[in-house]
Amino acid sequence: MTAFANRSSRQRHAARGGSPMPIIASVCVAILVAGGAWWWFRMRRPDPAADAMKYLQASKTQDYATMYEYSVVNKAQFPTEAAYEAQHRAAIGMVPPALLKQVTDSLTFSLGKATVNGDEATVPVAFSVTVLGQSIHKSVPMRMHYSGSVWQVESGQQPGLGMPRSPALNQATPGR
Prior knowledge:
5-stranded antiparallel β-sheet; 5 strands; disordered C terminus
């Protein structure tokens, strides 16, 4: 009777699907695939230096739509792209056209390797420009924030060609 009971028990166990190992293995594989997919999409971000260059080129060519996309924008101050563009066009309009052309024609950028820390990055930017016959060469760190789809230049960066003025420069400039 014991042999019959053991055989019956094995038959019932086999009918239920046997060992739980395939189920456990399937769950482990599903967790690994989901974790790998999350890591892939989370860590696969654009290069901050490439997005910094897009912003700088847009600034040089006065492409306000691209500047808006690649800027951390105060939505209370600039709720729309049109408001952002109007403010920047007004500021650029105060620069004599011949001087603006000279600056934009001579302005060049080179970017170093970005340093990334989570959703924050710093991109070293070296630029050269000739204004009224004088060449200016300067290196500055460009701070950026990852928005979920692109790296955006934080507000308060170096002035020029439509870039927001830094708060320190605003305080140091008389009449501001």
